[in-house]
């Protein structure tokens, strides 16, 4: 693939967040106008003795059509959008990564789109948000990756191939790495070919001293625990930050836009590779966390992206912390 075409495919693969088959599914986000970005670009909360900083990477707009929710009537999806005073033409899709500040440690949860987002005016803002919070990429000592969809890993390297966080160990779940780096899997899933190519751009050539593979289910780094949440992707993993009796869960893409999928956790988003497994994970996790006092954050949650999950008569509601 020619370099220009390759970079174009990376840029437009942003739409993979709500669709696995980009060419037939995505429209140019510019067709819907530019998203409105928040004035606040980072937001900090305390979890015991640890600081969690939400870092805004930007937002895009993607078509709201019958392929967004795979198992609900489109009329029902549009009605919910209308009831919530949301657009019935497009989905406003934000991107939020999280920084854990624990003593001298600086741990980044996912890396956003980097140079490869669409539209460029409103994506790829993570490093700038990090700077506004008072940190440089060189300050990051650990990067924890939830899964290998392009909007979560593209920010690891810039267009020139230089690693954005040169001093960080990059921790990735074994199952996720093995799936996306498999030539056999790439051949068997042509609809995800562009996503496989993004993975290769990011990870081929990453030094062994930087890349750290692990099995979810234990403490990855002091105070941060990993939990297998397979389904959205084969190795999708969430992280729990603990300090004393307090916890913060970064659930990555367990829930896409909460206005739709927290209220209707049985709805399946188009980008779930194994929708049945993803649904099972949501059922097991959401009720438990809603009954706790834990904070929660998701990659596509409305900024500041940190808050509480409240159980309602039907489904759940995400209540963001006050800004």
Short description, anyone?
With 323 residues, the chain is of the alpha/beta class. It has ten helices and 14 strands.
Layout of SSEs?
Layout (H helix, E strand, L loop, with lengths): L2 H10 L9 H4 L16 E6 L2 E14 L10 H10 L6 E13 L2 E5 L16 H7 L9 E3 L5 H4 L15 E5 H7 L2 H6 L4 H11 L7 E4 L4 E3 L2 E5 L8 E7 L2 E5 L7 H4 L13 H16 L4 E3 L8 E6 L4 E5 L3
Parallel strand pairs: 4-5, 5-6, 6-7, 11-12
Antiparallel strand pairs: 1-2, 2-3, 3-4, 8-9, 9-10, 10-11, 12-13, 13-14
What does this structure look like?
With 323 residues, the chain is α/β, with parallel strands linked by helices. The chain has helices spanning 3-12, 22-25, 74-83, 126-132, 150-153, 174-180, 183-188, 193-203, 258-261, 275-290; strands at 42-47, 50-63, 90-102, 105-109, 142-144, 169-173, 211-214, 219-221, 224-228, 237-243, 246-250, 295-297, 306-311, 316-320. Strands 1-2-3-4-5-6-7 form a seven-stranded mixed β-sheet. It has a seven-stranded mixed β-sheet with strand order 8-9-10-11-12-13-14. The radius of gyration is 18 Å and the shape is globular. The termini are far apart.
